[in-house]
Amino acid sequence: MRTVKEISKLTGISVRTLHYYHEIGLLPPTQVSEAGYRLYDDKALETLRQILFFRELDMPLKQIQKILQSPDFDRKTILKSQRKMLELKKERLDRIIASIDDVLKGEETMDFTVFSTQDIEEICKATLANMSEEQQELAAEQYGGRENYEKRLMELMSTEQARKNMEKMVEWYGDKETCMDVATHPLSAQVTAAYGKRFDAVQKKLMGKKGTDVNSFEVKEIVGEFEFVAKQFFRLKNMESFMLEMAADYRNNQALREHLDQTEGDGTADYLADALEAFYRK
Questions:
Q1: Given 54, 113, 211, 244, which residue has the most CB atoms within 10 angstroms?
Q2: Distance of CA 5 to CAs 10, 11, 40, 97, 181, Å?
Q3: Using CA atoms, how far apart are residues 81 and 151, in angstroms rounded to an integer?
């Protein structure tokens, strides 16, 4: 058993933060001594590590608590995701250091917009690797084998329109490096599902305000929440560009408009677009 001070020294987390995690029920101590000292065992340390992993993804504490308490929580899957993220950070730091060295030598070699064939191959392989066995089997059956499916995926991602879409993503993510990192290191299915539910819930809340002035504080507050959740879900940097692109989709994507208007009432798509545009209007 370890005390709060020992846990703090071991992990770098402040005593105050550990006390707070206890107060909100996120990380209760294994036991409390007669003298009132909080004590933690190895299992509690493992839980703390999972919490820190989620915090690296900027996930709110309440959402972390829901995931950790879920009966479907798969610790092994989360650990694999954590390892991927650590590898990602290491690789990215190595590339940044190498790029800085080139700049110091006078070699301006950094390119944040053009995706090479090798980049696309890496994204395709990551896409396949993160598909479930069932999805892989269905794709192989549909295209006459895994290799044929991979070839078709490469063809689709190599089109001019696909490259333009990826360049737009570079704008949203801030640079090509981050865009590649996100594309090749997706979040675990559990984390993705959790953020997806939050995203849908906030969008539903905004729909519920249909008819309310889009310039009102209550509507802008919800759009602000919508932006925050989208940023965590998609891991973007340039949120204004992304959200305005979403507004344009609400206006111009006929299939999306029909779905929203049929399920949520006429004018829903236009109201969502109006609300997003009003939020960013200078």
A1: 54
A2: 9, 10, 11, 36, 36
A3: 27
Biggest CA-to-CA distance, the chain: 69
Evaluate if residue 134 carries a pLDDT over 50.
yes
Mean pLDDT of 238-255: 87
d(C-alpha 51, C-alpha 59), whole Å: 9
- Phi/psi for 38 (5° steps) reads -80, 135
Please, how many CA atoms are within 13 Å of residue 133, restricted to the half-sphere of its CB?
Answer: 0
Q: Pairing state of beta strands 38-40 and 2-3?
A: antiparallel
Residue 3 CA to residue 15 CA, distance in Å, equals 10
Output phi, psi for 158, to 5 deg: -100, 0
The one-letter amino acid at 133: E
Coil/strand/helix, residue 122 = helix
Kindly report, residue by residue over 79-129, the tens digit of the pLDDT. Answer: 676 566 666 666 666 766 776 776 677 655 444 445 666 777 777 777 666
Q: Which of residues 84 and 259 earns the better pLDDT score?
A: 259
Give the C-alpha separation, 26 to 11, whole Å: 17
- Amino acid occupying residue 234: F
Q: What phi and psi values does residue 131 have, to the nearest 5 degrees? A: -80, 145
Written as one letter, the residue type at 164 is K
Phi-psi region of 235 (alpha: psi -120 to 50; beta: other; left: phi over 0): left
**Letter for the amino acid at 59?**
M
Query: Could you tell me the pLDDT band of residue 41, with boundaries at 50, 70 and 90?
Result: very high
The edge-to-edge listing of strands for the beta sheet with 31-32 is 2-3, 38-40, 31-32
- Between the alpha carbon of residue 243 and those of residues 78, 142, 228, 238, 267, the distances in Å are 29, 35, 11, 9, 19
